[in-house]
Structure formats: C-alpha cells, structure tokens
Amino acid sequence: MMFFNGFMLGLTSILSSNFILDSERESGIGRPDLVLISKPNKDNNAIIIEYKVVNTESELLAAAQDGLDQINAKNYDTKIREQIHIKKILKISMAFCNKEMAMEYEVVNI
C-alpha cells in the first residue's frame, strides 16, 4: 500500500500550487489515503482518494465500491466541509490488482 501512496503523492505533487495535499491525515473517523483541497481563490473543489489492493482481478469492482463506501461511512469529507470556499467534492476509490485497476467515484455538491 505504501507504494501507491508514494506514487500518487508524486503524481499529485505538481498540483501543490493550487491544492493543499494531505496523506493519511485524520478526517472523520478514519484516515483517507489522499485528500486534495483547493487553496482559497484558486478553485472551489476538493478530492478524496482511497486505494485498495486485491489479490485477484475478480475482486477489483467490489473493492473499488468498498473504498467508496468507506469514504462515506467514515465521513472522510469532514475536514473538507470546514473549508467555506469548497463547493464540490470528488470522492474516488481505486482498486489495484497487479497491472489492472478499477475505479468508483461520486461527485457531491455542498
């Protein structure tokens, strides 16, 4: 799992001029893998990303849905909702199995 956290932080680091990047920081009743909150006066969006790793490709879709359910059940958007400039949250769950990947997402207007 640490591989995916480091990989995604590296990919998203280019966004640091417009977004605040948080990894494994407590929010709600858990720790989302990655949170991007747009800086004030830059945008009004935020993104929550949760990763899952599975052993077989047949588990990918279920794991991606489980990750999205986890984002919602553990209220990972709690810290984001404290930001008055945020109007939209993109919740993304990605499941990986070797070179294969599945994703589920949800867009929430607040």
Radius of gyration from the CA trace? 14 Å
Oligomeric state, counting identical vs distinct chains? single chain
Number of strands: 5
Q: Percent helix among the residues? A: 25-40%
Q: Kindly report the average pLDDT value.
A: 90
Structural class: alpha+beta
CATH class bucket:
Alpha Beta
Taking pLDDT < 50 over at least 5 consecutive residues as the criterion, the unreliable ranges are none
Please work out how many helical segments DSSP would assign.
3
Secondary-structure arrangement, i.e. CATH architecture: 3-Layer(aba) Sandwich
- Strand share of the residues? 25-35%
What overall geometry do the principal axes of the alpha carbons give?
globular
Strands ordered across the widest β-sheet: 1-2-3-4-5
* Cα separation of the termini: 31 Å
Question: Would you summarize the structure shown here?
Answer:
With 110 residues, the chain is α+β, with helices and mostly antiparallel strands. It contains three helices and five strands.
